[in-house]
Design a protein that fits this description.
Structural class: mainly alpha
CATH topology of the largest domain: A middle domain of Talin 1
Radius of gyration: 20 Å
Number of helices: 12
CATH class of the largest domain: Mainly Alpha
Low-confidence stretches: 11-15
Number of strands: 0
Number of domains: 2
Order of helices and strands: HHHHHHHHHHHH
Largest sheet: none
Length: 331
């Protein structure tokens, strides 16, 4: 219902580019990071109260905060780029298994620096954020490794670091960056550049769904990679895809608000992808290794590709801007 209300409010009337960016900033971006800040603070509080990996309250708080990050993560520009904050919250994909190695090293050495938030923030990004905490809460090896007291301290350090990083992102948005999105400034020299940034957030977010959240576990027919599914230890792989779809739909429809036909087609395409995902009944995409189940995951990926095509071939030209390059495009 919240997503529907946001969509209706954002497409109620046509808007100039500056009005559009202001509405998206005020109604989508700022609330997303405010929610992340609140949920991350609750995560830190929960870890302080009970650091056990089996703690129901800690796992629930972790899930809520992770949900909030996934819902905001496609706004990967400005404050999230400062000091590599996005990577500090979400170091993934981790193709070289740096996160379990970094955590294992800390646990074995019992590095006392984790008790100091400033020192901990200088540790490897691989040992920080939601994916590192997932290992401590859900991985059968790391959740039982070393001293229970040290693992507890590390769980609390990571949780507090997530809260501090989330707060820093939200503060930057509120105090500085929101104003830069509402009208051209030194950062964005024209309204078109602001619109391009918002379009790039959408196209990059959809690319993450296609190439990473689905493409990585799918691998190839002869060599599927189910262990590459995002957040599989906590059973969140499919959930992240759905959260992302639901979070990006209001942005897409807001950008298309001056073309009723395009809005309708985008809405239908999002709904088709969402329906396909909701009926999958495969929370960690384990079916990629089974020929019968794999075809359903491939069909979901095709829905995402169709959605990307509408955005690139119709939404982008209608806005008069190109999404440009992003960090996933390589050299």
């Amino acid at each position: 219902m919240r997503v529907l209300a946001l969509i209706l409010s954002l497409v109620a009337a046509p808007a100039m580019a500056s009005d559009l960016s202001s509405e998206i900033t005020d109604q989508l971006i700022l609330p997303a990071f405010e929610e992340l800040t609140a949920d991350a603070a609750e995560l830190a509080t929960a870890a302080k109260a009970d650091c056990s990996p089996q703690s129901g309250s800690l796992r629930a708080a972790y899930g809520n905060a992770f949900d909030a990050w996934i819902a905001a993560s496609h706004y990967r520009f400005g404050p999230t780029e400062t000091d590599n904050r996005a990577f500090a919250l979400a170091f993934w994909p981790d193709s070289r298994s740096k996160t379990p190695k970094a955590l294992g090293n800390l646990i074995r050495s019992e590095d006392a620096g984790i008790s100091d938030p400033v020192k901990f923030a200088s540790h490897s990004i691989a040992a920080r954020g939601f994916y590192a905490l997932e290992y401590l809460l859900y991985d059968p090896d790391l959740s039982t490794a070393g001293s229970p007291d040290y693992r507890c301290a590390l769980t609390r350090a990571i949780s507090a670091d997530i809260a501090a990083t989330s707060q820093a992102i939200a503060a930057d948005w509120t105090e500085r960056f929101a104003a830069e999105m509402r009208a051209p400034t030194r950062r964005y020299r024209s309204e078109e550049e602001i619109t391009q940034e918002l379009l790039k957030a959408l196209t990059t977010g959809l690319q993450v769904l296609d190439d990473m959240r689905l493409g990585r576990p799918l691998g190839t027919f002869d060599k599927p990679r189910p262990n590459r599914a995002e957040a599989r230890r906590s059973g969140r792989s499919l959930r992240h895809l759905l959260l992302s779809l639901n979070a990006m739909e209001p942005l897409a429809l807001a950008l298309a608000q001056q073309d009723a036909g395009l809005r309708a087609d985008l809405s239908q395409s999002f709904e088709k992808a969402r329906t396909r995902a909701e009926t999958l009944d495969d929370p960690v995409f384990a079916g990629v290794a089974d020929p019968g189940a794999r075809i359903r995951i491939e069909a979901l990926r095709q829905e995402v590709k169709d959605l990307r095509a509408i955005v690139s071939k119709r939404l982008s030209p209608s806005l008069g801007v190109a999404a440009g390059f992003n960090s996933l495009d390589g050299d």
